[in-house]
Amino acid sequence: MKVGIVRFPGSNCEDDAWHAVVDHLGEEAVILWHKDHDLQGSDVVILPGGFSYGDYLRSGAIARFSPIMNEVEAHAQRGGIVVGICNGFQIACEAGLLPGALLRNDRGYRSMPVTIRVEHTDTAFSAAAHAGQCLTMPIAHGDGRFTADDATLDRLEGEGQVIFRYVDAAGHPTDAANPNGTMRNIAGVCNAARNVIGLMPHPERAMEPLHGSTDGLVLFQSLLATARA
Amino acid sequence: MTATPRLGDPVITPALVAEHGLTPDEYQRLERMLERTPTFTELGIISALWSEHCSYKHSRPVLKTLPTQAPWVLQGPGENAGVISIGDGMAVAFKIESHNHPSAVEPYQGAATGVGGILRDVFTMGARPIAMLNSLRFGSLDTPRVRYLVGGVVKGIGDYGNCMGVPTVAGDVMFDAAYEGNPLVNAMCVGVMREDELIRAKAEGVGNLIMAVGARTGRDGIHGASFASEDLSHESDAKRPRVQVGDPFTEKLLLEATLELIASGHCVAIQDMGAAGLTSSSAEMAERGEVGVEIDTLKVPVREAGMTPYEILLSESQERMLVVAHKGRDAEVRAILQKWDLTAAVIGEVIAEPVYRVKEGDHVVAEFPGTRLVTDCPFYYPEAAESPAIVALRERDVHAVAERAEESDPAWTLARLLSAPTIASKRWISQQYDSTVRANTVFGPGGADAAVVRVRGTKKALAMKTDCNGRYVYLDPRVGGRIAVAEAARNVACTGARPLAVTNCLNFGNPKRPEIFFQFKEAVGGMGDACRALDTPVTGGNVSLYNESPIGAVYPTPTIGMVGLIEDATKAVGSAYQSEGDSIVLLGTPTNELGASEYLSWIHGVVAGAPPACDLAGERAVIDTLCELADTRLLRSAHDCSEGGLAVALAESAIGNREQPRGIAVDLATWGSLPLRALLFGEAQGRVVVSTANAEAVLAVAKTHGVPARVIGQVTAASAGFTITGGARALHADVSTLSMSFHDALPAAMRRAPADAITTDPAAGVTA
Amino acid sequence: MTSYRVAVHVVPRRGILDPQGKAVTEALHSLGFAAVAEVHVGRHLVIQTVAADAAAAEASVRAMCAKLLANPVTEDFEIASVVAA
Amino acid sequence: MTSYRVAVHVVPRRGILDPQGKAVTEALHSLGFAAVAEVHVGRHLVIQTVAADAAAAEASVRAMCAKLLANPVTEDFEIASVVAA
Ligand SMILES: Nc1ncnc2c1ncn2[C@@H]1O[C@H](COP(=O)(O)OP(=O)(O)O)[C@@H](O)[C@H]1O
Ligand SMILES: [Mg+2]
Question: Cβ distance B619 to B485 under 8 Å?
């Protein structure tokens, strides 16, 4: 499996994603330059975290017009797997690859560990988990309040497109467990075709004992499980 | 060639000279140097270079007394950042810097640009920044203005560091009325590189090209360096246009471009354009290389039309670098910058003639003979005399301070101390900082006594912490200076790391006042004593004088930034108790000292008494003990006793991790004869609370180092409560009560703030 | 061709939670502005552009809004003014 | 007493670096809007408040701007409109 990780100007988690794939999964990864037009044969594309274009105007709004996004969109259209993490999730929403929008947190920037519950395991970024599994990993963002109109939210719920939800220690999606005011405690969603997945938490920062949690590993292992299936 | 005035330049008058902050003597020295009247441009240049901020004219002789050498020091003071070796060909660059005055005027931008500046200092050495720290001092949170400053400073630090993708992992914050009108905002950056990537800011090679790189030059912050060298007065408000705006996005591009540029070998030297911008960066690079330089201001990429040489030279626009490139390689340099959407322009060259020359096209607007423009400034040895009022405070018998009625229950006192903003959890602050980006953070804010950050590609980790108790330094500068170093080293050692070296930020008042200069001299002396005793040389730092407001000078605050090394990252030790049944061992000895304590200040409003004694040999032995204990994996947790003393340290290890609290059952009967409040809340130095599954072994190791050690109790379940017996009165508290005091204090205080939100986030447009 | 300054308001779509507006309202109350009922916070963009006439300037800014300046999922925009400058 | 809607523009002060405006300008260029010379991004606030008359409404919003809504160091503000509503 080859994972292409896009480096936008202002990305800052591309190396972390690279280490997750190469050091912890033992798979091949390549950093893709945003001005290029070539995915270099990547099976999976990761849009990493960071502050692309400084997050000026709106997070992800400018990056989504980067030249390489044409190829990323074509890859997604062909059914190729795209994972957006944090800023990458924001970019994917802005690009229309994912539904909804990520607005300013209701309580400012938050950097802290959270617990998320895996709602569905039929995506390439959740396949190795079991449904209802709770995973601990950090969030670090200012714009993570997932927002869509009620009809869209109902449709997402109905179609099983809400993949990750913030929950408390007991696994319940309570208000107290909601770190940013996101609607229905949504932490991650996928598109209708289920090949594009976005999430605000950072699994690449929960890969080894030194991180204090290895729960991110199962999400990356999902890529491998899907590729081999 | 000789410089001549530009059309429209103001005439040089004594009033203009005074406005530029030069004394009549300094002005005469300038005239003697030039053998003529300076041009307006020259006056501006010298006013910046001879400002305290750039020239260190009051501090340099004292700084010379600090130890700066050790086999592992690759670069000591004098460069953009200090550099030490950590073995295996790897090196660490680190530095701390103040942005106090800009932050007092505009907290968000002031703090943000402070972070930007210190990051540039580190990556211009060729190091990739891997961690940021911040040391903050504010007045009382009861004042709305202070809450506004806290909100803005924290958001400014967070937004800049977060955008850069450099984790902010540690720091220290204290609140005291002494900082009311003049907060301190010190930012520290730590970077990692291979030893062979080290590059210095030394202009070399006649014919080499001087290039301006990064953001364009605008009219921002003109004369920031001299601004930093004045007292804060109400008139400072009128100086607001001097405030600079940071652009962390451009800085992130500049970081990547600079590291790529250094790796490319196309350049000889790089320096960031910080205070006094182009002027000081070019003059300092020329001085280090002992070469002449010639610059043409018309070639500098500007943001606004019609900028004069004076403005271009003194602008403090952010996110700019000065690069000396090999002759003929400017196209290659430009290509690298272009890849990152940044500009680069040749603006001059290194010349054989020993002069500093500035032209505007063909017109020479400034020309100084020699290459030592910065150190040719006058140096001062001001008078030093201790203030008798402070002597009286120190000599006061603080044991005579009457107890408050509520103190009959020591649990009340403990809970109250845990809610003192200086002691309380700083999570409200650190949650606004990305502390985990780069995926190397082993212990971030609040997890251990110092932050621990793994060095990718090795088994090693770095430990780092800032510290300084300004109240100690105020009451006894020599002892306070020693303690600042000793506490920082102890914090680093609590994680299991060997302290290696120090950067420092000397925040003091007006050095022309004898009682201030006394503080400065003595505190630096104390720092030097401790650095020598602990074998942690000083590799750099920053001096910030004139930290005064209408209510007086701040506490003398020589902030220490300490860096240490753990050979095996998996051996790092946190500060929270891990398991019920573990033994709690106290290293070091309680005393009857109570002076200068947070207890006296917060419970009684008394700032008096002598700070605790600092036994440097004892500190060193404790550090050695901690390193050995961690290395042999004997420790479950380690936390030093600092503000609030033993009782607070015991409590912090129990409740520091809010999600997994523990109780304790501790008996202090051994020291039952000490006054209870000294035993519980006194701040005797050299003490560490550790927990262990193997107390015998811990005691044995301590003994080999000659460190007093004693088992004082056990870790229990949180539900069993928090109990300390053996003193004059027993202390029983609910763990949840203590936890609430500690964790809710800062959020509750800040909730009283009028939301500063909307005024402070230009980048995102709107905030909450 | 003339130079125009076109001002645009980009505002959160009605019905979308506006925590910024709420925070500002509360802050104003705590500062003693008790008469404030509600605050809404949006963006104010000023675009300096060259066009054949005012209508063309406005049309091009509308295109910019549709493409980049406003998020169609959560925001509405309106052209506030077009002046030759 | 009447209810008023007061609209305010808060914009980066002239000469002060506007990184956001710069980023948006460059993005518009790369999207083909070559005629754009400059963009500035500020805030558009709509404050619903009760006052004796329009002048009083405006005066109180000016006070809010000076105190909270605009940063006196880096921003300018102007009252765009005051309408009874
Ligand atoms: N401004 C800050 N930014 C990040 N972390 C901070 C800050 N202030 C304090 N911390 C963290 O909070 C913890 C407690 O700090 P401090 O009270 O200074 O400890 P000690 O008194 O033991 O030196 C440390 O982990 C420290 O790094
Ligand atoms: Mg401390």
Answer: no
